[in-house]
Design a protein that fits this description.
CATH superfamily of the largest domain: P-loop containing nucleotide triphosphate hydrolases
Distance between the termini: 72 Å
Largest sheet: 9 strands, mixed
CATH architecture of the largest domain: 3-Layer(aba) Sandwich
Mean pLDDT: 85
Strand order of the largest sheet: 7-6-8-9-5-10-11-12-13
Shape: elongated
CATH class of the largest domain: Alpha Beta
Protein backbone atom coordinates (compact mmCIF):
# COMPACT_ATOMS: atom_id res chain seq x y z
CA UNK A 1 0.00 0.00 0.00
CA UNK A 2 1.23 3.52 -0.76
CA UNK A 3 2.32 5.73 2.10
CA UNK A 4 -0.68 7.97 1.42
CA UNK A 5 -4.07 6.47 0.73
CA UNK A 6 -6.73 9.13 -0.06
CA UNK A 7 -9.48 6.64 0.82
CA UNK A 8 -8.32 6.39 4.41
CA UNK A 9 -9.58 9.38 6.44
CA UNK A 10 -8.18 10.09 9.87
CA UNK A 11 -10.46 11.26 12.67
CA UNK A 12 -9.86 14.99 13.37
CA UNK A 13 -7.64 15.25 16.44
CA UNK A 14 -4.65 17.22 17.65
CA UNK A 15 -3.00 15.15 20.38
CA UNK A 16 0.16 17.28 20.13
CA UNK A 17 -1.81 20.45 20.95
CA UNK A 18 -3.49 18.66 23.84
CA UNK A 19 -0.14 17.64 25.33
CA UNK A 20 1.43 21.06 24.81
CA UNK A 21 -1.51 22.77 26.52
CA UNK A 22 -1.49 20.41 29.50
CA UNK A 23 2.25 20.96 29.90
CA UNK A 24 1.72 24.73 29.91
CA UNK A 25 -0.89 24.42 32.67
CA UNK A 26 1.37 22.18 34.77
CA UNK A 27 4.21 24.72 34.46
CA UNK A 28 2.05 27.82 34.93
CA UNK A 29 -1.40 27.30 36.45
CA UNK A 30 -2.53 30.70 35.14
CA UNK A 31 -2.79 29.06 31.71
CA UNK A 32 -5.85 27.16 32.95
CA UNK A 33 -7.69 30.43 33.56
CA UNK A 34 -7.14 31.36 29.92
CA UNK A 35 -8.80 28.24 28.56
CA UNK A 36 -11.19 26.73 31.11
CA UNK A 37 -14.15 28.79 29.93
CA UNK A 38 -13.79 27.13 26.55
CA UNK A 39 -12.41 23.66 27.18
CA UNK A 40 -14.01 20.78 29.08
CA UNK A 41 -12.54 17.30 29.58
CA UNK A 42 -14.67 15.71 26.85
CA UNK A 43 -13.09 18.01 24.26
CA UNK A 44 -9.80 16.07 24.51
CA UNK A 45 -9.34 13.18 22.08
CA UNK A 46 -6.71 11.24 24.05
CA UNK A 47 -8.37 9.54 27.10
CA UNK A 48 -5.33 10.13 29.32
CA UNK A 49 -5.30 13.83 28.41
CA UNK A 50 -9.01 13.96 29.17
CA UNK A 51 -8.39 12.52 32.64
CA UNK A 52 -5.39 14.79 33.32
CA UNK A 53 -7.40 17.90 32.42
CA UNK A 54 -10.30 16.78 34.62
CA UNK A 55 -7.99 16.24 37.61
CA UNK A 56 -6.29 19.60 37.01
CA UNK A 57 -9.67 21.37 37.09
CA UNK A 58 -10.77 19.59 40.26
CA UNK A 59 -7.46 20.30 42.02
CA UNK A 60 -7.43 24.00 41.14
CA UNK A 61 -11.09 24.31 42.18
CA UNK A 62 -10.14 23.01 45.62
CA UNK A 63 -7.64 25.86 46.00
CA UNK A 64 -4.48 23.78 45.60
CA UNK A 65 -1.72 24.25 43.06
CA UNK A 66 -1.18 21.86 40.18
CA UNK A 67 2.06 20.18 39.11
CA UNK A 68 3.10 16.59 38.25
CA UNK A 69 3.58 15.75 41.93
CA UNK A 70 0.23 17.07 43.26
CA UNK A 71 -1.93 15.31 40.68
CA UNK A 72 0.02 12.04 40.26
CA UNK A 73 -1.88 10.18 42.99
CA UNK A 74 -5.21 10.95 41.26
CA UNK A 75 -4.13 9.28 38.03
CA UNK A 76 -3.42 5.65 37.16
CA UNK A 77 0.20 4.54 37.67
CA UNK A 78 0.55 2.90 34.29
CA UNK A 79 -1.43 2.68 31.07
CA UNK A 80 -0.97 -0.01 28.47
CA UNK A 81 0.61 1.37 25.33
CA UNK A 82 1.85 4.60 26.95
CA UNK A 83 5.32 5.09 25.50
CA UNK A 84 8.06 7.72 25.48
CA UNK A 85 10.62 7.43 22.67
CA UNK A 86 9.28 3.97 21.89
CA UNK A 87 9.66 2.65 25.45
CA UNK A 88 6.85 1.76 27.87
CA UNK A 89 6.48 4.64 30.34
CA UNK A 90 4.68 5.40 33.58
CA UNK A 91 2.12 8.17 33.88
CA UNK A 92 4.51 10.05 36.21
CA UNK A 93 7.20 10.00 33.53
CA UNK A 94 4.67 11.15 30.95
CA UNK A 95 3.67 14.13 33.13
CA UNK A 96 7.32 15.11 33.45
CA UNK A 97 7.70 14.86 29.67
CA UNK A 98 4.69 17.14 29.15
CA UNK A 99 6.37 19.77 31.33
CA UNK A 100 9.65 19.62 29.41
CA UNK A 101 7.79 20.16 26.12
CA UNK A 102 5.39 22.80 27.46
CA UNK A 103 4.47 25.92 25.51
CA UNK A 104 4.34 29.36 27.09
CA UNK A 105 1.14 30.72 28.58
CA UNK A 106 0.95 33.14 25.62
CA UNK A 107 0.32 30.18 23.28
CA UNK A 108 -2.22 28.49 25.55
CA UNK A 109 -5.29 30.03 23.89
CA UNK A 110 -4.12 28.99 20.41
CA UNK A 111 -3.57 25.39 21.51
CA UNK A 112 -6.95 25.36 23.26
CA UNK A 113 -8.62 26.47 20.04
CA UNK A 114 -6.85 23.71 18.12
CA UNK A 115 -8.16 21.14 20.60
CA UNK A 116 -11.64 22.62 20.54
CA UNK A 117 -11.86 22.89 16.74
CA UNK A 118 -10.90 19.22 16.41
CA UNK A 119 -13.68 18.28 18.85
CA UNK A 120 -16.25 20.35 16.92
CA UNK A 121 -15.16 18.63 13.71
CA UNK A 122 -15.59 15.20 15.32
CA UNK A 123 -19.08 16.10 16.53
CA UNK A 124 -20.10 17.35 13.10
CA UNK A 125 -18.75 14.25 11.35
CA UNK A 126 -20.56 12.03 13.84
CA UNK A 127 -23.87 13.84 13.23
CA UNK A 128 -23.45 13.64 9.45
CA UNK A 129 -22.57 9.95 9.63
CA UNK A 130 -25.68 9.41 11.72
CA UNK A 131 -27.64 11.15 8.95
CA UNK A 132 -26.22 8.79 6.33
CA UNK A 133 -27.03 5.77 8.50
CA UNK A 134 -30.54 7.10 9.09
CA UNK A 135 -31.16 7.49 5.37
CA UNK A 136 -30.07 3.95 4.51
CA UNK A 137 -32.21 2.50 7.31
CA UNK A 138 -35.47 4.32 6.60
CA UNK A 139 -38.57 2.18 6.95
CA UNK A 140 -40.90 1.98 3.94
CA UNK A 141 -43.00 5.13 3.76
CA UNK A 142 -41.06 6.89 6.52
CA UNK A 143 -40.64 10.63 6.02
CA UNK A 144 -36.89 11.26 5.63
CA UNK A 145 -37.16 14.91 6.74
CA UNK A 146 -38.91 13.84 9.94
CA UNK A 147 -36.28 11.17 10.54
CA UNK A 148 -33.50 13.74 10.11
CA UNK A 149 -34.87 16.10 12.79
CA UNK A 150 -32.64 14.65 15.59
CA UNK A 151 -29.57 15.15 13.36
CA UNK A 152 -30.61 18.76 12.69
CA UNK A 153 -30.91 19.29 16.43
CA UNK A 154 -27.45 17.81 17.01
CA UNK A 155 -25.91 20.10 14.37
CA UNK A 156 -27.67 23.16 15.81
CA UNK A 157 -26.40 22.23 19.28
CA UNK A 158 -22.86 21.92 17.91
CA UNK A 159 -23.17 25.36 16.29
CA UNK A 160 -24.42 26.83 19.57
CA UNK A 161 -21.53 25.21 21.44
CA UNK A 162 -19.02 26.48 18.84
CA UNK A 163 -20.00 30.09 19.64
CA UNK A 164 -18.11 29.71 22.91
CA UNK A 165 -14.87 29.84 20.93
CA UNK A 166 -15.62 33.24 19.40
CA UNK A 167 -14.41 35.48 22.27
CA UNK A 168 -11.09 33.64 22.50
CA UNK A 169 -10.30 34.37 18.85
CA UNK A 170 -8.89 37.61 17.46
CA UNK A 171 -11.15 40.15 19.15
CA UNK A 172 -9.16 43.10 17.83
CA UNK A 173 -9.58 42.13 14.21
CA UNK A 174 -13.26 41.36 14.72
CA UNK A 175 -13.76 44.86 16.15
CA UNK A 176 -11.86 46.51 13.30
CA UNK A 177 -13.91 44.61 10.71
CA UNK A 178 -17.21 45.67 12.30
CA UNK A 179 -16.06 49.29 12.72
CA UNK A 180 -14.85 49.52 9.12
CA UNK A 181 -18.09 48.05 7.76
CA UNK A 182 -20.15 50.47 9.85
CA UNK A 183 -18.03 53.43 8.69
CA UNK A 184 -18.52 52.49 5.04
CA UNK A 185 -22.30 52.12 5.46
CA UNK A 186 -22.50 55.25 7.64
CA UNK A 187 -24.90 53.39 9.93
CA UNK A 188 -25.24 50.29 12.10
CA UNK A 189 -25.95 46.98 10.39
CA UNK A 190 -29.35 46.19 11.80
CA UNK A 191 -33.14 46.40 11.71
CA UNK A 192 -34.62 49.86 12.41
CA UNK A 193 -36.83 50.10 15.51
CA UNK A 194 -40.34 51.53 15.11
CA UNK A 195 -40.32 53.49 18.38
CA UNK A 196 -37.42 55.61 19.60
CA UNK A 197 -38.32 54.80 23.21
CA UNK A 198 -37.37 51.15 22.72
CA UNK A 199 -34.05 52.07 21.12
CA UNK A 200 -33.29 54.32 24.10
CA UNK A 201 -34.19 51.62 26.61
CA UNK A 202 -31.88 48.99 25.08
CA UNK A 203 -29.22 51.65 24.35
CA UNK A 204 -28.94 50.60 20.71
CA UNK A 205 -29.89 52.50 17.53
CA UNK A 206 -31.40 49.37 15.96
CA UNK A 207 -31.81 45.61 16.41
CA UNK A 208 -28.29 44.68 15.34
CA UNK A 209 -27.58 41.71 13.08
CA UNK A 210 -26.30 38.68 14.98
CA UNK A 211 -27.87 39.80 18.26
CA UNK A 212 -30.58 38.12 20.33
CA UNK A 213 -33.21 40.37 21.93
CA UNK A 214 -36.01 39.57 24.35
CA UNK A 215 -39.38 41.19 25.05
CA UNK A 216 -41.03 40.44 28.41
CA UNK A 217 -44.68 41.06 29.16
CA UNK A 218 -47.69 39.36 30.74
CA UNK A 219 -50.67 38.06 28.80
CA UNK A 220 -53.01 40.84 27.71
CA UNK A 221 -50.50 43.68 27.82
CA UNK A 222 -50.09 43.84 24.05
CA UNK A 223 -46.63 42.40 23.43
CA UNK A 224 -47.85 40.71 20.24
CA UNK A 225 -49.36 44.01 19.09
CA UNK A 226 -46.06 45.76 19.73
CA UNK A 227 -44.21 42.97 17.93
CA UNK A 228 -46.47 43.30 14.88
CA UNK A 229 -45.75 47.02 14.90
CA UNK A 230 -41.99 46.36 14.98
CA UNK A 231 -42.29 43.85 12.13
CA UNK A 232 -44.36 46.21 9.98
CA UNK A 233 -41.78 48.96 10.42
CA UNK A 234 -39.00 46.57 9.38
CA UNK A 235 -41.02 45.51 6.32
CA UNK A 236 -41.48 49.14 5.29
CA UNK A 237 -37.71 49.55 5.39
CA UNK A 238 -37.19 46.55 3.11
CA UNK A 239 -35.94 43.99 5.65
CA UNK A 240 -36.89 40.30 5.33
CA UNK A 241 -39.19 39.40 8.23
CA UNK A 242 -40.00 35.89 9.49
CA UNK A 243 -42.51 35.44 12.33
CA UNK A 244 -42.21 32.03 14.01
CA UNK A 245 -45.47 32.00 15.92
CA UNK A 246 -46.98 29.37 18.18
CA UNK A 247 -50.13 31.48 18.50
CA UNK A 248 -50.89 33.94 15.69
CA UNK A 249 -51.90 32.94 12.16
CA UNK A 250 -50.92 35.00 9.11
CA UNK A 251 -54.51 36.29 8.80
CA UNK A 252 -54.47 37.55 12.38
CA UNK A 253 -51.12 39.26 11.86
CA UNK A 254 -52.29 41.04 8.72
CA UNK A 255 -55.49 42.20 10.39
CA UNK A 256 -53.43 43.83 13.13
CA UNK A 257 -51.13 45.43 10.58
CA UNK A 258 -54.08 46.90 8.67
CA UNK A 259 -55.58 48.20 11.93
CA UNK A 260 -52.29 49.81 12.94
CA UNK A 261 -51.52 51.27 9.52
CA UNK A 262 -54.97 52.23 8.17
CA UNK A 263 -57.09 52.46 11.33
CA UNK A 264 -59.55 49.78 10.21
CA UNK A 265 -60.32 47.72 13.31
CA UNK A 266 -59.64 44.00 13.16
CA UNK A 267 -63.22 43.13 14.22
CA UNK A 268 -64.58 44.92 11.13
CA UNK A 269 -62.07 43.22 8.84
CA UNK A 270 -63.36 39.83 10.02
CA UNK A 271 -66.85 40.79 8.81
CA UNK A 272 -66.25 42.37 5.39
CA UNK A 273 -69.81 43.70 5.10
CA UNK A 274 -68.92 46.22 7.83
CA UNK A 275 -66.29 47.77 5.54
CA UNK A 276 -66.88 50.60 3.14
CA UNK A 277 -65.88 50.07 -0.47
CA UNK A 278 -62.83 52.26 0.02
CA UNK A 279 -61.78 50.36 3.16
CA UNK A 280 -62.21 47.05 1.35
CA UNK A 281 -59.97 48.27 -1.46
CA UNK A 282 -57.41 49.48 1.09
CA UNK A 283 -57.30 46.04 2.71
CA UNK A 284 -56.89 44.36 -0.67
CA UNK A 285 -54.06 46.71 -1.68
CA UNK A 286 -52.32 46.17 1.64
CA UNK A 287 -52.49 42.39 1.21
CA UNK A 288 -51.00 42.68 -2.29
CA UNK A 289 -48.19 44.86 -0.95
CA UNK A 290 -47.40 42.38 1.82
CA UNK A 291 -47.48 39.53 -0.70
CA UNK A 292 -44.70 41.24 -2.67
CA UNK A 293 -42.39 41.39 0.36
CA UNK A 294 -39.90 38.93 1.88
CA UNK A 295 -42.31 38.19 4.74
CA UNK A 296 -43.56 34.90 6.19
CA UNK A 297 -45.66 33.87 9.17
CA UNK A 298 -44.80 30.29 10.12
CA UNK A 299 -47.43 28.67 12.35
CA UNK A 300 -45.47 26.49 14.77
CA UNK A 301 -46.70 23.57 16.88
CA UNK A 302 -44.07 21.58 18.79
CA UNK A 303 -40.84 22.73 17.17
CA UNK A 304 -37.61 22.75 19.15
CA UNK A 305 -35.06 25.58 19.09
CA UNK A 306 -32.81 23.81 16.53
CA UNK A 307 -35.82 23.32 14.27
CA UNK A 308 -36.72 27.02 14.53
CA UNK A 309 -33.15 27.86 13.54
CA UNK A 310 -33.48 25.53 10.55
CA UNK A 311 -36.71 27.24 9.45
CA UNK A 312 -35.08 30.68 9.80
CA UNK A 313 -32.00 29.62 7.82
CA UNK A 314 -34.22 28.37 4.99
CA UNK A 315 -36.16 31.65 5.04
CA UNK A 316 -32.99 33.74 4.87
CA UNK A 317 -31.59 31.66 1.99
CA UNK A 318 -34.85 32.09 0.07
CA UNK A 319 -35.52 35.76 0.83
CA UNK A 320 -32.12 37.28 1.64
CA UNK A 321 -31.80 40.67 -0.06
CA UNK A 322 -28.70 42.16 1.53
CA UNK A 323 -30.55 43.71 4.46
CA UNK A 324 -30.49 42.29 7.98
CA UNK A 325 -33.33 39.77 8.44
CA UNK A 326 -35.70 40.21 11.38
CA UNK A 327 -36.63 36.87 12.97
CA UNK A 328 -39.30 36.86 15.69
CA UNK A 329 -40.13 33.90 17.95
CA UNK A 330 -43.43 33.89 19.88
CA UNK A 331 -42.75 32.74 22.56
CA UNK A 332 -39.85 31.04 24.37
CA UNK A 333 -42.00 29.23 26.93
CA UNK A 334 -43.61 26.99 24.30
CA UNK A 335 -40.42 26.08 22.42
CA UNK A 336 -39.76 22.36 22.89
CA UNK A 337 -36.69 21.95 25.13
CA UNK A 338 -33.99 19.36 24.49
CA UNK A 339 -34.52 17.91 27.96
CA UNK A 340 -38.12 18.08 29.13
CA UNK A 341 -37.08 16.95 32.63
CA UNK A 342 -34.73 19.90 33.20
CA UNK A 343 -35.71 22.85 35.38
CA UNK A 344 -37.05 26.00 33.70
CA UNK A 345 -33.78 27.89 34.08
CA UNK A 346 -31.82 25.17 32.30
CA UNK A 347 -34.47 24.88 29.58
CA UNK A 348 -34.61 28.64 28.96
CA UNK A 349 -30.83 29.04 28.91
CA UNK A 350 -30.41 26.10 26.50
CA UNK A 351 -33.08 27.42 24.14
CA UNK A 352 -31.60 30.91 24.29
CA UNK A 353 -28.10 29.66 23.46
CA UNK A 354 -29.36 27.87 20.36
CA UNK A 355 -31.39 30.88 19.20
CA UNK A 356 -28.35 33.10 19.77
CA UNK A 357 -26.40 30.70 17.56
CA UNK A 358 -29.18 31.09 15.01
CA UNK A 359 -28.79 34.86 15.07
CA UNK A 360 -25.06 34.49 14.48
CA UNK A 361 -25.52 31.97 11.66
CA UNK A 362 -28.21 33.90 9.79
CA UNK A 363 -26.76 37.35 10.45
CA UNK A 364 -30.25 38.34 11.52
CA UNK A 365 -31.65 40.26 14.45
CA UNK A 366 -33.74 37.87 16.54
CA UNK A 367 -36.51 38.98 18.89
CA UNK A 368 -37.87 36.38 21.33
CA UNK A 369 -41.10 37.07 23.18
CA UNK A 370 -41.29 36.00 26.81
CA UNK A 371 -44.49 35.54 28.79
CA UNK A 372 -44.17 36.59 32.42
CA UNK A 373 -44.37 33.86 35.01
CA UNK A 374 -46.80 34.14 37.92
CA UNK A 375 -44.32 35.32 40.58
CA UNK A 376 -44.35 38.98 39.62
CA UNK A 377 -48.11 39.16 39.40
CA UNK A 378 -48.32 38.57 43.15
CA UNK A 379 -46.04 41.45 44.16
CA UNK A 380 -47.53 44.70 45.45
CA UNK A 381 -45.50 46.44 42.76
CA UNK A 382 -45.92 44.32 39.58
CA UNK A 383 -43.32 46.17 37.48
CA UNK A 384 -41.33 43.44 35.66
CA UNK A 385 -37.91 42.29 36.86
CA UNK A 386 -35.56 39.58 35.61
CA UNK A 387 -37.04 36.92 37.91
CA UNK A 388 -40.30 37.24 35.92
CA UNK A 389 -38.63 35.72 32.85
CA UNK A 390 -39.35 32.14 31.85
CA UNK A 391 -36.45 30.41 33.60
CA UNK A 392 -35.74 33.38 35.87
CA UNK A 393 -32.48 35.29 36.08
CA UNK A 394 -30.28 32.56 34.47
CA UNK A 395 -32.34 32.85 31.29
CA UNK A 396 -30.80 36.28 30.58
CA UNK A 397 -27.35 34.89 29.78
CA UNK A 398 -27.59 34.34 25.99
CA UNK A 399 -29.43 37.61 25.30
CA UNK A 400 -27.76 40.82 24.17
CA UNK A 401 -30.67 42.91 25.48
CA UNK A 402 -34.08 42.30 27.04
CA UNK A 403 -36.75 44.95 27.43
CA UNK A 404 -40.16 44.76 29.08
CA UNK A 405 -43.62 46.11 28.32
CA UNK A 406 -45.71 47.09 31.34
CA UNK A 407 -49.23 48.53 31.04
CA UNK A 408 -50.16 50.17 34.32
CA UNK A 409 -53.91 50.19 33.81
CA UNK A 410 -54.21 46.41 33.45
CA UNK A 411 -52.72 45.89 36.90
CA UNK A 412 -54.44 48.95 38.38
CA UNK A 413 -57.89 47.64 37.45
CA UNK A 414 -57.03 44.19 38.83
CA UNK A 415 -55.86 45.69 42.14
CA UNK A 416 -58.92 47.95 42.39
CA UNK A 417 -61.26 45.02 41.77
CA UNK A 418 -59.97 43.11 44.80
CA UNK A 419 -59.05 46.01 47.13
CA UNK A 420 -60.82 45.39 50.46
CA UNK A 421 -59.01 47.52 53.00
CA UNK A 422 -57.49 50.93 53.51
CA UNK A 423 -54.06 49.32 53.33
CA UNK A 424 -54.90 47.95 49.86
CA UNK A 425 -55.86 51.42 48.62
CA UNK A 426 -52.71 52.94 50.08
CA UNK A 427 -50.63 50.42 48.13
CA UNK A 428 -52.51 51.35 44.97
CA UNK A 429 -51.88 55.06 45.57
CA UNK A 430 -48.20 54.38 46.13
CA UNK A 431 -47.53 51.99 43.26
CA UNK A 432 -49.49 53.46 40.34
CA UNK A 433 -48.89 56.91 38.78
CA UNK A 434 -51.45 59.57 39.60
CA UNK A 435 -52.13 60.29 35.91
CA UNK A 436 -53.19 56.69 35.37
CA UNK A 437 -55.41 56.65 38.48
CA UNK A 438 -57.17 59.91 37.63
CA UNK A 439 -57.48 59.90 33.84
CA UNK A 440 -57.57 56.20 33.05
CA UNK A 441 -54.93 56.63 30.36
CA UNK A 442 -53.65 53.39 28.92
CA UNK A 443 -50.00 54.13 29.59
CA UNK A 444 -47.37 51.52 28.91
CA UNK A 445 -43.85 51.62 30.24
CA UNK A 446 -40.89 50.10 28.43
CA UNK A 447 -37.79 49.41 30.46
CA UNK A 448 -34.66 47.29 30.48
CA UNK A 449 -34.21 43.85 32.01
CA UNK A 450 -30.77 43.49 30.45
CA UNK A 451 -28.73 45.94 28.42
CA UNK A 452 -25.30 44.72 27.44
CA UNK A 453 -24.21 48.05 25.98
CA UNK A 454 -25.80 50.80 28.07
CA UNK A 455 -27.67 51.98 31.15
CA UNK A 456 -29.99 49.18 32.34
CA UNK A 457 -32.20 51.56 34.32
CA UNK A 458 -33.75 53.66 31.53
CA UNK A 459 -37.56 53.73 31.41
CA UNK A 460 -39.76 55.35 28.78
CA UNK A 461 -43.51 55.71 28.27
CA UNK A 462 -45.80 54.76 25.40
CA UNK A 463 -49.55 55.15 24.93
CA UNK A 464 -51.60 52.09 23.89
CA UNK A 465 -54.46 52.66 21.47
CA UNK A 466 -56.55 49.56 22.18
CA UNK A 467 -59.00 50.03 19.30
CA UNK A 468 -56.14 49.85 16.79
CA UNK A 469 -53.86 47.58 18.87
CA UNK A 470 -50.91 49.90 18.42
CA UNK A 471 -48.52 51.94 20.52
CA UNK A 472 -47.53 55.54 20.01
CA UNK A 473 -45.02 57.83 21.61
CA UNK A 474 -46.06 59.68 24.73
CA UNK A 475 -44.06 62.65 23.45
CA UNK A 476 -45.76 63.46 20.15
CA UNK A 477 -48.45 62.12 17.78
CA UNK A 478 -47.62 59.15 15.63
CA UNK A 479 -46.03 60.13 12.33
CA UNK A 480 -47.61 57.89 9.71
CA UNK A 481 -45.26 56.56 7.02
CA UNK A 482 -46.46 56.05 3.46
CA UNK A 483 -46.18 52.52 2.10
CA UNK A 484 -44.10 52.19 -1.04
CA UNK A 485 -46.11 50.71 -3.89
CA UNK A 486 -49.59 52.03 -3.13
Amino acid sequence: MNAYDPNVRAVPENVEAEGALLGAILINNAAFDKVNRLLEPQHFYEPLHRKIYEVIGQTLASGRGVNPVTIRSHLPTTIDGLKIDGEQATVAAYLARLCTEAVTIVNAADYALAVYDAWVARQAISALQEGVDTYFNLAPGEDPLKAFEPIEERMAAVRAEALKAAPIKNAGQSYVDALSASYQRQDVNGVPIALDEIAEVISEPCFEGGNLYGLLSSSGEGKTSLTVQLMLHAMKKGHPVCFLSYDQSSDQVLRQMVAQEHEIEARRQRDAKLLSEREFETCMNFAQWVGSLPFEVVKCTDQSAPQLVGIARTFVKRHGNGKVPFIVVDHIGVVKPEDRRADEGTKAKGIGQILKAGAEMTGGAWLVLNQRNSFGMKRDNPRPISMDLFGGDPAKTPFDAIFYLYRFIKFLEERKAIASSEADWKKIEKVFPSAVRQDGQDIAEVGSIKSRFGNPHIRQRLVFEARLTRYKSDRAPVEQESLAGF
